[in-house]
Amino acid sequence: SNDPLVVFTPSGKRGRFPVGTPILTAAQQLGVDLDSVCGGRGICSKCQITPSFGEFSKHGVTVHADALSEWNVVEERYKSKRGLKAGRRLGCQAKVMGDVVIDVPPESQVHRQVVRKAASARAIQMDPAVRLYYLEVDEPDMHEPTGDLERLKRALKAQWDIPEISTEFSSISLLQQKLRAGHWKITVALHKDHSSALPKLIAAWPGLHEAGLYGLAIDLGSTTIAAHLTDLETGLVVASSGIMNPQIRFGEDLMSRVSYAMMNPGGDAEMTRAVRDAIDTLAQEIAAEAGVEMTSILELVFVCNPVMHHLLLGIDPVELGQAPFALATSGSVRLTARELDLRSLPAAAQIYVLPCIAGHVGADAAAVALSEEPGKSDDLALIVDVGTNAEILLGDKTRVLACSSPTGPAFEGAQISSGQRAAPGAIEAVRIDPATKEPRFRVIGSERWSDDPGFADAVAATGITGICGSGIIEAVAEMRIAGILDQSGLIGSAEQVGSPRCLPEGRTHAYMLHDASAEGGPIITVTQGDIRAIQLAKSALYAGARLLMDERGIEKVDRVVLAGAFGAHISPLHAMVLGMIPDVPLDKVTSAGNAAGTGARIALCNVAARAEVERMVGEITKVETAIEPRFQEHFVNASAIPNAVEPFPELAQ
Ligand code: FES
Asked: Structure pTM?
């Protein structure tokens, strides 16, 4: 035909369209990913495009400056009121006049890619469950006595080609007032995920809703709750924040919370209320920080371990404390903020809880699998999410195995005599001179080592307050390297070690890292009890990993990925000196940051990823550490530093 040729970049899609066809229409017909909320009315600006001029030999097109229609009134009005970047046009207003090459900038793509920061990570492809639709609804009149909802549905069909939606009563009651407040112009939010039959009406605003659309990706841990407020149109995290899990007062670790529920009638309900209130508070804080209205937060995705999963959902966790560790459900759970009684969020906000892998391997491990994709790895990867409970995955393209291991809170600085959370003032890195046995260290909040000039000034503001998880790991490993500790983990006396820093403490010894008592600060020591706590934690971690390796029938993994908010700060060398992780070349140990949180973000931004994680979980082999006798054996052997029986040849180098 003689119709002009329209070529879209970066997709390369092309087609011929009659003169006068709006670019948005051409894009929609070709399946080009060009956004629109207002349906081509020139008010939402989601459809912005950049026409290119010149010669495009690759496409066989020469584009003249008049290939698009002149600015019309609607576009002019938009530009004068709101402004448009240079070279940009509104795709719904600009019409095809001749051969043209049209670039769709990333902001105008619904399915844009959000590049993640961590090097190993996959990009997040946007395909959120919630989308906005602007509508002009017919006014009611005496001759046509239809309901508001029916007229709204008619507008959805006519203006957006959406033939049917589902509704809940609560959303219907909202429509009446909003339709009238917006003079029959309204923006509705429809939610449709991988398992919905129909899009569901979940929110409405008078006129064009311009305050955005947000979701929360929540990593609900035993110790902390972390939330990432995510813009569902761009995929960017606009604010992240954390809060202590208030259930700590019912028990530090998961099993003590399960016992609390067993011993105290109503104890599970109490813990459920506490964690929901904390989530509510966190949601409000994070929204306030980012200047986002609570009414714009329409979806929450949760990842958590099985006990937290049950306590969040209000299901008695007692079954998880005893064999056969049956979950109420291992499948994903979909519900609403109203059903979870999250009072600060819109009642119809949608909630998706990732599936669990098994009674001890939760949705957090599933999220790590979604983020790190061990099932797509060519080499054999061991992924360790270090927390109060360690989630461990081992796999490659052929098979993925998973387990969890109760490491306890020592790696997070808890149950350590001078332990504290990772915060300014905490010792985070330690080196000990093997000859003099003298330590030097670094404190969170300063780049300087303690023997650098200016260190005292650099830490004056915070002081030196304690030692955090990564600090204690380095301290114990360095003590072993310097010969202050023997292989069994025993701290030597001042005479044995040859250092006045080895102080007697009861019948054991403690190594003094820093004495701030002259400045009114604490004396920071590593005690024999601290060493034992770290030995227990690292043995549990290693035994879990080793059990998966047995199951797979291998002696060595190809690479190790340390994940978890805290895992990112662990030094691979020190982890290996301790025997926390199996022996691999040091350059094969990488950090994935908070992989569970990333998995939650991926599921929040992309509905296909939800189907993917549900399928993945079904294919993962679960290994139950609690009933496996070899776990005990590995655990005992791993108590030595690095290990009583296993060689660590890479360490020798
Ligand atoms: Fe809304 Fe073009 S589609 S401004």
From this structure: 0.86
